[in-house]
Amino acid sequence: MLIAIEGIDGSGKTTLAKELKKWLENEKKKKVLLTAEPFTEEISKLIQEEGWKDPVTLTLLFSADRGVHVNWIMKQNQYDIIVTDRYYYSTIAYQAAMGIDKNWIIEVNKFFPKPELTLLLDIPAEIAITRIKKDDKFNFKEKLSLLQKVRENYLEIAKNENSIKIINSTKTFEEVLSEAKNYVEELIS
Ligand SMILES: Nc1ncnc2c1ncn2[C@@H]1O[C@H](COP(=O)(O)OP(=O)(O)O)[C@@H](O)[C@H]1O
Ligand SMILES: Cc1cn([C@H]2C[C@H](O)[C@@H](COP(=O)(O)OP(=O)(O)O)O2)c(=O)[nH]c1=O
């Protein structure tokens, strides 16, 4: 069973993924594999060196990275649940925000398995950016308008896809986690 966690940078994906894993293991006695995209070091390096200059190359690099990731996931037979921090909805939302045709991105990604559940952490970009700043990881000033567009794209995708559940990530982390648990509970029970 594949669960994806999606949302703009700073929306709380990594925090949620870790806590969900703990809960699934400790309370639900499930074997959980936590993974993330971008997945491979080699392609991440290419993305840093080349991709950001060119959204077409970026789309292909993220999708190629996903191919390697999916092949690896397919071999992880000992787990009940695989939780991935980002999946193909990231490419649809981010690279479409950079001007790439959504249908082409969907086409490039059409062979990858669809997650049974996707938790979309929804939050205004202005708030997400303050959370990233708290971590002092990046300077996202110039990213605000891009992230606003990415957020809109995610919400648009979710409108047409029942397996994507939107969680309001401006709430406290306890509330976000509790909502996420309810959706996962529905899926595994
Ligand atoms: N619901 C929340 N309310 C307030 N802060 C949060 C919440 N969820 C996560 N955070 C904090 O926001 C920051 C970014 O979270 P993170 O999980 O790294 O996001 P992402 O993986 O989506 O970039 C971290 O400092 C984290 O502790
Ligand atoms: C997987 C993926 C990530 N990205 C972007 C989102 C992030 O800005 C960046 C790195 O992802 P990530 O390391 O997950 O960043 P964060 O933890 O801040 O969310 O790559 C894409 O643009 N397309 C994709 O397909």
From TrEMBL:
Its EC number is 2.7.4.9. It is an enzyme of class 2 (transferase). Gene3D superfamilies: P-loop containing nucleotide triphosphate hydrolases. CDD domains: TMPK. Residues 5-178 form the Thymidylate kinase-like domain. GO terms for molecular function: ATP binding; dTMP kinase activity. GO terms for biological process: dTDP biosynthetic process; dTTP biosynthetic process; dUDP biosynthetic process. The keyword Phosphoprotein does not apply. Keywords: ATP-binding, Kinase, Nucleotide biosynthesis, Nucleotide-binding, Transferase. It comes from the Archaea. GO terms for cellular component: cytoplasm. It catalyses: dTMP + ATP = dTDP + ADP. SUPFAM superfamilies: P-loop containing nucleoside triphosphate hydrolases. ATP binds at G7, I8, D9, G10, S11, G12, K13, T14. NCBIfam families: DTMP_kinase. HAMAP family: Thymidylate_kinase. Belongs to the thymidylate kinase family. This is Probable thymidylate kinase.
